[in-house]
Porin
Amino acid sequence: MRGFHRYLALGAGLAAAFPLGAQGLAITTPQASMKFGVLFQPQYEAIGNQTLDGTTQNLYMRRMRLYILGNVGDKWEYWIDTDSPNMGKANADGTRNGMGPNGNLILQDAYITYKFTPNLKLDAGLTLMPLAHHNFQGATSLLGVDYSPYAFLSSAGLGNNVGRDTGLLLRGFAWNHLDFRLGVSEGKRAKEVTGQAIPTNNHVASNNAMRVSGRLQWNFFDLESTANAYYAGTYFGTKKIFSIGAGHDQQDDYKATAFDIFLDWPVGNDSVTFQADHWDWDGGTWIPTLTKRKNLFSEAGYRFGATNLMPYVRYEFQRPDVETTAVPKEDRLGGGLAWWIKGHTSNLKVQYLRIKPTAPGVSLNDYNQVNIQFQFFYL
């Protein structure tokens, strides 16, 4: 019996040190904490093509993430998460992404946070840079299936991974209504150039200026969050949120400007959610592949509290200054149905989009995109 009591005491100690419940798995001490979480998004996709016949079908893991976060003392916080995006999805040559011995595990976010006050924090490391509301939404709490394809158009040219960059991000709140974010980051680095005809053109790598990003959001009623670095795509009417925001991102002669509006409002036991985000992109000579264009993303949904079902509609467009096959004028219209089984912890979404690209002098196909995604998120 003595041995049994020892095992019982050991089990009680482990349970206290590693509590597993609604808030996830955590290690806590008087001076620090560490919390663990996971995200799984298995997904089916059927999508056509603007120039080719037929439909591509994939059954793959859209995201598979591991989270580690916590605090050290009262002033320091940290956040780390990995991802294996699009694991198993077919590439253009027919090979499967992320399969085989090398895999595709990446470091998605990794930053430490110094908390000056509860309403003023400084992040340092690899994190999202501010622009539009949709850019700063967490992938775990989107309303529909995935982000707009127009949300992170500068990432490739700046050498980023879906809007992330290494640098500093100051974020905070003022007057119980203003949400502000200011980032300074690495951005694109210049190549080494020697032997130019004009000596002043000689420079070394990393000689160019930093990338600067900023965003302001005015919340007319409740703040979205005073603790989380990311916004949600829907709050299920748990708050009364109506906000307008604007952001700007620039390095050298590349610049992007965004404006957005977001609404999440309770209607009895139901709730309604709406947002619209508009971007003006201009890569300049710094990102020559990012030609001038305007893009819009919008969505609206109504959640029925009795069933946790939310039908929603979605409309997006692209309006380039110069329309080409690679960058056509484009409209995306459709919608879907989200079943919030347990909010953002577990849900099932079915989405359909009709995509209509046009460009002068070429014949492009209108095509369909269908996605079915299940999410399991535990943090």
Q: What stands out?
A: The two ends are 37 Å apart (CA to CA). Helices lie at 2-17, 155-158.
